[in-house]
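User: Sequence in, structure out. Go.
Assistant: Echoing your sequence, followed by the structure tokens.
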Amino acid sequence: MRYFQLLYDYENDSDYIYCEGENEKAIEKELLYRSEMIQKWEENTTFIYDINDGHIISDYIANSLIIPMISEGCYNIFQERIIDSVQFLPVLIEEKNTNKKNNAYILNVLSVIEGAIDFEKSVFDIFKVEEIEITSFRKHVLKADIISGTHIFRLKEDPLAIFVSEQIKDLIDNSMLKGFDYLEVSLQ
């Protein structure tokens, strides 16, 4: 099976909306990177967009917090197939001129795999910010035996990236969902 890093499609987003968190401090995005079930969630969390800047609500929604957000249509497709690996956190997206609201969801990916990166074959840089050491990957090479059978996950060593199996990529593509892009990862 092939695997891909899930990305936002910047190449085709000229008419897609861009949402800004109404109260960004209320969303503890660090919780999302820990990949733990979030028990307390403010269901009226709202993101604002301006129809003059983009009028198409893509299925993978760009936002100021740079967290994975999906449309209600995408949620309806995903929730039937990947419910065990993901927590769907409801949010509202509101057009700032008309106050029209739509439902959307933040993806909290719960599956975290440790030890799946082949550090000898991956390409990455390590740098320090204050006393914190950060690893920035340019190319992931993953160990096939460790990720086998997993369809959506994060890596303990790179908690910002989301990876999907070919099965999830095909589900997205065959459902004609907009806003998704992928980078195939090498397997060892």
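User: And one key feature?
Assistant: The first strand starts at residue 3 and ends at 8.
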